[in-house]
Amino acid sequence: MNNAETAIEAKDMVKRFGSFIANDHLTFSVYKGEIFGFLGANGAGKTTAIRILCGLSKPTSGEIRVAGFNVFTETEKIKKHIGYMSQRFSLYEDLTVFENFRFYGGIYGMSRSAIREKTSEMLGKLGITELRNTIIASLPLGIRQKLAFSVAIMHTPEIVFLDEPTGGVDPITRRQFWTMIYEAAASGITVFVTTHYMDEAEYCNRVSIMVDGRIEALDTPAKLKARYEAASMNDVFIKLARNTIEK
Amino acid sequence: MRTIFYIVQKEFLQVFRNRMMLPIIFVIPVVQLLILSYAVTFEIKNINLYVVDNDNTVSSRSLLEHFRSSPFYHITGQGTNSRLGMEYLQKGKAHQMVVLLPGFEKNLVTGAPARVQVINDAINGSAAALMNAYTMSIISDYNKTIITRVLPAAASPMNVCWSFWFNPELDYKTYMVPGILVLLVTIIGMFLAGMNVVREKEIGTIEQINVTPIRKYQFIAGKLIPFWIIALFELAIGLLAARLIFDIPLLGNIFLIFFIASVYLLVVMGIGLFLSTITNTQQQSMFLAWFVLVIFILMSGLFTPVESMPQWARSLNVVNPIAYFIAMIRMVMLKGSGFQHVSDKLGLLFIYGIAMLSLAVWRYRKTT
């Protein structure tokens, strides 16, 4: 595979915690500009994998390159090129919207004027310009999640990692959230997103489905549905999970 | 540099926005200074004395009169039966009992040894020793006047002239307040920065920082600087209170005190930040910090003179930053020592601080 086309390449990625194998020889590639869905049940190993790719956790073994850099030796270089939105809420609740943008933008080395411009641009897109000086703690979860995503991509990374970004939000907000993801992808950012909502898988270019630490299937949603003779991704997932249990 | 600035800015915003934090940082320390400085004292002022006078003569009454007129003694009971005095000691109603046996005056006049019995409640050993010394000096003064009267030639063969330097009135507060200032600065330094890092771990925001290209030293510096400034500000409030409320002399250069404090803070904050890198919850880091702090405080010479500790304990104080700071701040405030007098200790403290901060930077993990 050609490096120019891939944003992420993982070969035999393994992560062990003692005798427990969280990631069992994962092999996959993510192409530049695509929305890559990383699906699986709770505890399947999605968060472990995303943490490795972001350089937060060291893999046990494997050959892994993110944005062209080796995760073992060039972790800090990777961090310049990625954005990350964790499962846990990551904005400072006692700061205002703008103060959060300013802090993270500042850490990524953005200039003062760039931070201001980017903030007003993103708040404008979300239609919440008037919330610029509101304390995060007083905002509803849906808006906070959208803000967290905006913060994760404000420094225009090559790849953004989203770890269950829509957990706990209502269907309308989820819809809006996916619109934001599409816009990010359209602007050239590769999106790596984990979820356990199978309907969201339909929005991805390609998806991988993890069961018990292994990738059981990886393809476009249409091809997966055809292969497993399923009407929806939900059915695909259930068939895959059942197969594994029967094995 | 810019990255550090953004962290510092964020920390200040958070501190000043926190309604609980401001009083904790600025009010409680002053209250602490007020209470501790007035209350914690080694002076013995109210000795409850029980006297047993079985002689009941002019001489015995005259000796007891010396106790009665001393401001340090309070005669809590008087009788002819020492058993009752024992009861007083047992119940804690008396700290000391003085017993004069029958024939006290007669023995004095005839030149035979006149016996006086002094019994101390010595549960608190150092307090008992002090009471005993007061009493002995009253009795020996009395003794001397009698000898002079009987034998004028034997009076004062030696004339000792003494004075107390640096604290001429032996005011305990003069000794204590600088030490308590050190404690204030220490607690702020040790806890605030370290706890702040662990808090970010608890709420999960540290992950978001760890995925950025921030350098480890930038992170530690960003957490150090805001609380370093706050602690120095705290010291300024404390010094002002010491000057205005307690009238503690400040003989040395005030800038030297701040310079010493800023070097000292590198050490305690370095320790606090290091502890924060090896713990995951505020509870853990609080406990660890307290264990370290209690040992440091008790061995520092704040309450007890370092000179009277065993040699091994004094050697342990080589790594006790509080001992360095207390010694130096007392020297500068009370003796007016200059930079050249403290430069050795200050140099060691500086090396210590750099070492602790390096350790914190080294131990801080962006990737686990």
Describe the structure.
The complex is a heterodimer of chains A (247) and B (368). Chain A has a six-stranded mixed sheet, with helices on both faces. A four-stranded antiparallel sheet of chain A has the order 2-1-4-5, with helices on one face. Chain A has one domain (6-246): Rossmann fold (3-Layer(aba) Sandwich). Chain A is built from nine helices and ten strands. Chain A has 247 residues and is α/β, with parallel strands linked by helices. Helix content of chain A is 38%, strand content 26%. Chain B is an alpha/beta fold and 368 residues long. Chain B has two domains: 2-40 and 168-363, no CATH class; 47-154, abc type-2 transporter like domain (abc type-2 transporter like fold), CATH 3.40.1710. Chain B is built from 15 helices and four strands. Chain B has a four-stranded mixed sheet with strand order 2-1-3-4, with helices on both faces. In chain B, α8 runs antiparallel to α12, α10 runs antiparallel to α15 (339-363) and α11 packs antiparallel against α14. In chain B, 36% of the residues are buried. The model of chain B has no long low-confidence stretch (mean pLDDT 87). The chains are: A alpha/beta (247), B alpha/beta (368).
- Portion of residues in helices of chain A? 25-40%
Biggest sheet overview of chain A: 6 strands, mixed
Globally, the shape of chain B reads elongated
The greatest interface here is:
A-B, 29 and 25 residues
Rough outline of chain A? globular
Order of helices and strands of chain B: HHHEHEHEHEHHHHHHHHH
The pLDDT mean of chain B sits at: 87
**Cα-to-Cα separation, first versus last residue of chain A:** 32 Å
